[in-house]
Amino acid sequence: MNSQPPPFTNVKSYVPFRGPCDPCPPIGRKYFSTPPSLYLGFQPPGLPQFSPADALRKGTLWKVFYDYYDNPYRKGAGKPRG
Amino acid sequence: MWTYEKKLQYPVKVSTCNPTLAKYLMEQYGGADGELAAALRYMNQRYTIPDKVIGVLNDIATEEFAHLEMIATMIYKLTKDATPQQLRDAGLAEHYVSHDSALFYNNAAGVPFTAAYIQAKGDPIADLYEDIAAEEKARATYQWLIDVSDDPDLNDSLRFLREREVVHSQRFREAVEILKDERDQKKVF
Lengths: 82, 189
Prior knowledge:
The structure holds 2 protein chains of 2 kinds. Chain A is built from 1 helix and 2 strands; from the N terminus they run E-E-H. By secondary structure, chain A is largely without helices or strands. Chain A has a domain at about 45-80. Chain A has a two-stranded antiparallel sheet with strand order 1-2. The longest helix of chain A is centred in the last third of the chain and has 7 residues, at about 50-60. The mean pLDDT of chain B is about 95. Chain B has a single domain, classed as Ferritin. Chain B is built from 7 helices and no strands. The longest helix of chain B is centred in the middle third of the chain and has 29 residues, at about 50-80.
């Protein structure tokens, strides 16, 4: 028995219902994004920032909003590069 | 009025010759949840939104035009050197016979842009909730584009654009909080 709650992730998943006569092999899990903007409410002051150069690359100044996305259906996906 | 900077908001590099990706990217060019729809939606709603949040719509609309430019650059790079046969193989024969390799505000299925994609209800909450939904739909579209694209450099630019949608969603959500205006008043409901 694992009593620990699963670690927080911005990628949620579920297994769709499988009917006995479904024509295609199962996809397995379906994935969807729940980005940080869903959780924070009004942004509080003084949050940690990226450096200006990093912010321009990543698309946000605020670390809390950075949400790297990769195709969850590809093997080995989910690791940010660089 | 605007001040134009003759550069893209984020570099666009395309490393593989795959005109089919241009067809998919058109969803973000002239599609219902694309950058043109977003820019026009916010730029129009800003006139009838309370003063406190006009700037949010104005700034985000302006940035959406910068994103439109990036998408246009991607599509242009992917189609400018394609022969008619290559465009046909990419599913763009219908586009070619109508437009050659000119860009046009179509979605990925070739449906032309229409103002019916956007709304302006005049109710600030209704309009901001529509804007939040539009950002989430654009974010999802970028995810599906990243999923079907295997060009790492193109995906890098698409990831930047997706991240901006996340931030825009946050700012529209904050605009709703400002209009609700109960934040600093300690009230028990």
